[in-house]
Amino acid sequence: MNKDELRLKYKALREELPSEAIDNLSLDIANQALQLPIWDKTNYHLFLSIQNKKEIDTEYLLQILAGKDKNVILSKSDFKEGTLAHYLLTDNTTIKVNSYGIPEPVDGIQVSEKQLDVVFIPLLAYDKQGNRIGYGKGFYDRFLAECKPDVIKVGLSFFPPEERISDVRDGDIPLDYCITPTEVFKF
């Protein structure tokens, strides 16, 4: 299947999930994350969930990161430029939901992409080769291209991988891992 077909399929599958299931599956994903060999790192980029798109609730991952005393970095979107700016999450960080429903930091201590060790990545679908599909705006591909070459890219999904995404492009950056509620896939 191609990206457009997969976007439709997985938006529909997520839409069918009841809120209670999202909560339980998100907790399972956070627990699966503990198996990854990433916990010796310092700077972890995390996305905050878009509630109305039924994304994985990353609050559980946030609690794990805080419990392990890790630096958590959040993004703020610039839809005009198609870019992300990154800010250290602190006790003083104000989070505001933007007009697209994305919770973001208002401002704070800016962090360069080159400082990130691990990036947790939102996605709609992915395949057995680690290729991922987001919402189609390219924010994460542009962002990941600016990260250091050895940054660990971790997708989060309620669902298992597709066999193959048929229209992968050169600029698409694959995942290193994808965490589901029952399994961790390594690419």
TrEMBL record:
<dbReference type="InterPro" id="IPR037171">
    <property type="entry name" value="NagB/RpiA_transferase-like"/>
</dbReference>
<feature type="binding site">
    <location>
        <position position="55"/>
    </location>
    <ligand>
        <name>substrate</name>
    </ligand>
</feature>
<feature type="binding site">
    <location>
        <position position="50"/>
    </location>
    <ligand>
        <name>substrate</name>
    </ligand>
</feature>
<keyword id="KW-0547">Nucleotide-binding</keyword>
<keyword id="KW-0479">Metal-binding</keyword>
<protein>
    <recommendedName>
        <fullName>5-formyltetrahydrofolate cyclo-ligase</fullName>
        <ecNumber>6.3.3.2</ecNumber>
    </recommendedName>
</protein>
<feature type="binding site">
    <location>
        <begin position="3"/>
        <end position="7"/>
    </location>
    <ligand>
        <name>ATP</name>
    </ligand>
</feature>
<dbReference type="GO" id="GO:0030272">
    <property type="term" value="F:5-formyltetrahydrofolate cyclo-ligase activity"/>
</dbReference>
<keyword id="KW-0067">ATP-binding</keyword>
<dbReference type="GO" id="GO:0005524">
    <property type="term" value="F:ATP binding"/>
</dbReference>
<dbReference type="InterPro" id="IPR024185">
    <property type="entry name" value="FTHF_cligase-like_sf"/>
</dbReference>
<feature type="binding site">
    <location>
        <begin position="132"/>
        <end position="140"/>
    </location>
    <ligand>
        <name>ATP</name>
    </ligand>
</feature>
<comment type="similarity">
    <text>Belongs to the 5-formyltetrahydrofolate cyclo-ligase family.</text>
</comment>
<dbReference type="InterPro" id="IPR002698">
    <property type="entry name" value="FTHF_cligase"/>
</dbReference>
<dbReference type="GO" id="GO:0009396">
    <property type="term" value="P:folic acid-containing compound biosynthetic process"/>
</dbReference>
<dbReference type="Pfam" id="PF01812">
    <property type="entry name" value="5-FTHF_cyc-lig"/>
</dbReference>
<keyword id="KW-0460">Magnesium</keyword>
<dbReference type="GO" id="GO:0035999">
    <property type="term" value="P:tetrahydrofolate interconversion"/>
</dbReference>
<keyword id="KW-0436">Ligase</keyword>
<dbReference type="GO" id="GO:0046872">
    <property type="term" value="F:metal ion binding"/>
</dbReference>
